[in-house]
Batch of 4 targets.
Target 1
Amino acid sequence: MANAVLLVDDERFARTVYSDYLRAGGFDVEVAADAEAALAILKARRFDVLVADVILPGSSGLDLLGAAKELDPNLEVVMITALDKVDPAVRAMKSGASDYLIKPVTPEALQHAVHRSMASRALLAENKTLRAHLKLFEVCQRISATLDRDRLVPMGLAAVASTCRARAALLAELAPDGSWVLSGAHGLEYQAAADLLGEVRDRLATMQGGQAVSFQLGGGDRPVQQAFCLPLVDEAGTVGAALAFPDEQPGVEARESGAFLASHLALALRNLGRLKQVEHLAYLDDLTHLYNTRYLDVVLDRELSGGRPFSLLFLDLDHFKGVNDQHGHLSGSRLLVEVARVLRSCVRDEDVLVRYGGDEYVTVLTGIDSGGGLKVAERIRRAMESHRFLSREGTPVQVTVSIGLASFPEHANTKADIIDLADRAMYRGKRTTRNVVYIASHDLPPARDR
């Protein structure tokens, strides 16, 4: 309650007079005769100002001051003392009291001291709020400026949990197909977060704009759990949602802070998406829209650090120069695009297709050893052999391919070695029958200009 004052004095006359003074000043006053009674009242309700005599039965006003500050550090305290007891009042000021009055106390002096304490409390509360807002603003600035997903998601979820006073939080992003995908969790194991997301997916689908919503999960045989959902929305639409799981639903201030935080998290996630699109374009071959050699470096670094077996196929079209000479370079370019389509039909979505340069291609078969890689290479060779290229142009062309295969860790343990061995194996095919698959061997001669 606003303007609430607890008056503590062991003299009934003083309690009556001082409480009348304060009520005349518009304060809501409650009284206590000793420190024990005062502490019981302070535990039961919140006060703005404590007015207490320095000398109390059983326990001094200084002891009451310390105990009261432990209960509420923001409580303002005014001490009342006799003329010969000023030193304890001064010590009380050093211990956190905001003012002291010397008996006899006039109505004006008491009212003024309490008003001053109220103003000080309000100013401190305002400063605390400003500091909290400044801290939130700084966090939001860091979030907005972060372009590293591995840093952004934990930072954002920690901020959401703190702002909503929640023990846990999770982030769900909206995929292009309209599904909700778990992107991270704070204070939750991944499976627990996935289970919670599964439970709220239907609610997420009915979110209205950027309005935060509160609801309960569980019930029946399961404990009831509070959930607070912050939609992540920017000018382009919904990016995702942050869900916090507090013990109590957030108040107005926490909701406003959460909405402010959510807007910056949405912006950061959108920026990450745009960055990913730009990076994706930087990794694509302009002609075939397969990946380029820059991305091949990234993939091989990733696979080698992961430690799982994988196979690399180095492919070179047989007699491609003849196609350019007979049909022209434009038809040759169209054929290279068509080769990319044939290759895509022969591998899995998780495999990586790269145009290495000219009429050379590289395929990285993730999680596949040389035995499995040989089967895929033979599938590609047969598909290329049977396909009639440039049929739409009315000039069908048959093109075959020579393929070299090298596997990690069977043949090589470094990026340069695995590419070199696959290239050597491919060149062996070029020197012999062509339209063939060869597996890497360290006794093969180095590849030379073809």
Note: The longest helix spans residues 107-145.
Target 2
Amino acid sequence: MRPFVARFRCAEGCDFEAGLDEVVYTCPRCGGLLEVAHDLEALRQRGAAEWKALFDGRFRTGPWPYGSGVWGKKEWVHPGLDEAHVVSMGEGGTPLLRVDRWAREIGLQDVRVKECGVSHTGSFKDLGMTVLVSAVAGMRAKGVAIRAVACASTGDTSAALASYCAAAGIPCVVLLPRGRISTAQLVQPIANGALVLELDTDFDGCMTVVRELAAGGRVYLANSMNSLRLEGQKTASIEVAQQLGWESPEWVVLPGGNLGNASAVARGFLLLRDLGLVSRLPRLAVAQAERANPLYRAVSAAGDRPGTRLSDVQVEPVAAQPTLASAIQIGAPVSARRALRALEALDGVVEQATEAELADAAARADRAGLFTCPHTGVALAALEKLASRGVVRPHERVVVLSTAHGLKFSDFKVAYHEGTLPGIASRHRNPAVRVAASASAVEDAIAARFGPS
């Protein structure tokens, strides 16, 4: 059987290629980002039914590391990596929840939430970081000189990188924008022993610094411009199809910041289609916070120019303003061109959400049983708007990617229900009620809420 292989190649069409164990992030000829290219002819040596049976047999139950939602698809992710170098924390295999009550409230029949935050460090970033850190472990074992692995982060990336590096015994450096992430997000890399550096700038400023360090060979870059990350993140798409009985939903909706995840979602579904495991592609909706919306602005402007191809659109950087969705407060997304190609391939749209819209959408979904982070609130608010305009039709099945666990943003939740978020009316506020310690006082409170018995 022809071996399964994958290599870096230029995503912009140059003929540049490199091995996955080479320290390279961009094309040396055109400066474009890279992508991981798999040998599809080799993968087609197994039929769709064989791949489905293999993946189903491993899903959450296979021998280590194949019970991982990522490494259970190893042949489609990093086929050449020695198992001895895999660094896995049981990532993936996350629930795909039906949220029927919330769906009915917004006029839809079938909405499911892929709970990517039910993961080791509480966010979807684990999916990509297990691949990147495992690759680094393999490279170091071969003698590649990597002093430390580093990232710029708005919180979740740093937590995932620090955890996986700690498990592998690899030095880790994280650059955070001072005062712009939650306490829970800050303490995670500290607890895992990373060198945590708080910079007096925003995420884009941190990204500039870490890219300079990586370009000089002083650190190995772990941000999503490193396409190894996307290979892990694309497995969320494969899981969604698997959990739907190897079918694609009509829509996938996700929040977008640095925009690598939009590309990863498309890569997963395109590979599923190309290998015959699904018969069609879903449509893609990328949701941005209104205060950090360069992709939304660019695509909206292109819509005013009939005949414009999304792959030809230029995404101009913006000065991202503070937003409750702090993880996507990014004004110069490095994967903008990747995201445009994903939107073009999946007939996608871009929507935005105001601060009030994202906060109210998160609270409304919570009242239907979820516990959402503010970034997922952006995606939920965007879906509400798309449904109200008829872009998403009532009968269409929708999957929303929830990117982080709501417990990492408890301050946001508390402030919403206390009514102390600046400029937000908290339409679904539900504060605790203080009552006397007596049965009659409790009964009065119950009657006030639900009516007399």
Note: The chain has a mean pLDDT of 95.
Target 3
Amino acid sequence: MERWQKIERVPAPALIPIYGALSGMRVLMTGSIVAAPFAASLLAEFGAEVIHVERPKIGDPYREQAPVVKRGDRRISAGWIQEGRNKLSLTLEINMKIPESKEIFLSLIKNCDVWLENMVWTEKLGITEEMLFEVNPKLVIAHISGFGRPQFGGVPEECNRPSYDPIGQAEGGYMFVNGFPEPMPPSHAATFINDYMTAMFAVNGILMGYIHAQKTGQGQAIDVAQIEAMSKVLNDTFVQYFMLNKIRQRNGNKVAIFQPGNLFKTKDNKYLYIGAYGPVVYGRFIKALGLDLEKYSHEACGNSPEAINSELGLELNQITIDWVAARDAEEALRYLLSHKVPCGIVRNVAELAASEHYQKRGNFVEYLDETLGEPVKAFGFTPKMSVTPGKVWRGAPTLGQDTEAILTKLLGYSENEIKAFREKQVI
């Protein structure tokens, strides 16, 4: 009888405090930059006990991603400070050909509700879904990859392609519609937006699978592809093509189907976005600028591509450009808001950090980073929860910080066994 067959599951949480709506869920995460770790972070912020598996001595490359924060001989990625918090770090060489690794990994699978991975080639490591469901029939398996897994369909050669965030944006259709029209090239969205969108779809799938497993005792696999995450957020782009034979094009900052819906430069060299969709809000905007609504009617100037590109529509656009250019950003913002016209100033991080609204929303949290050994400040939680709010119970861990605690408290290994694992470089 193998070890995983003998051990009893230790209820979660066993190694972290009780907090949040997901307390009682345990997640095993074997992945690196960026989608899988971010998905795990979202779960960990609301109470899931997340075990982040890292390679011995090497760790997750996320720890070294530039820019890094340095304190003497200690250094850690700013990204790791933000996203590594609330996780347990276990070092383990994942390879089912190594008996000790297989023993530890399958014992962890028995103790977890979710296995989250973005390693792609798991079969090469000897890991199969059939093996894992035998160990834990209620397991939710979340696969994250660039192009999806063949078991869910697709061209096998495409499924095997490596990918990073901008590749997903390009191949999923998002990059084509992002940026300014030709002759300008397409533009990718910054801050790994593809990875973050993919992570959020993964979390959604994990929670659905988890609820189903708790109700029925039946686990399942979830397949999240970067390209499909991007295609999913293209709004009506595919319907436009299938039903109207239209290929959506880039329009820069200008909304193609109504106005005002654009970014305008202010007198103090800032940028103000004004959006007034629909006849009622459009009417407020026209009134705010002191214009004649009968002349610059919604039908004639604001409610369709034809209207906004008509002679009168283009005239209204130029009036708007000139009106904003004659005013400072804050002045224009306050005036338009007094008329209930939706608008917003393009803010940088320094402005957001100083924002009274952000501060009173509790958007910034301070905690002790385990690597630096000092307090750090980072962005807090979304969404806000009235009964089960998010929490930082600990800063991002050092490499392998929780290995011994996990192996002893969850899996029942002795001190001598753990020492032997270290000598064999399994952990």
Note: Residues 261-265+271-345 form a domain with the formyl-coa transferase, domain 3 fold (CATH 3.30.1540).
Target 4
Amino acid sequence: MGTVKTDLADEVQAKTRHRVKEPELYKVLLHNDDYTTMEFVVEILMAVFHKSPAESTRIMLNVHQKGVGICGIYTYEVAETKVDTVEKLSRVNGFPLKCSMERE
């Protein structure tokens, strides 16, 4: 009788493992504009995305030169929160910095 329970438990575990799906990931993007200062973009990257000063500067230059830059890759809810935070901080500070997200 103990063997039957173990076999059943193994079967249930195997089926459960196959159903678990990794959450979809989203890229959070910053978009270049003619008004937001480079210093403010670096501050946003450090404050919201917890990037180092060097990494923040690299991303900011990428945004400036290519028109868009990836700030990070997150689950939907985290990405959505970061986009909202960046846009609110930008407006409060008088900048039109645009932040968006797209599926990875």
Note: The chain is about 60% helix and 20% strand.
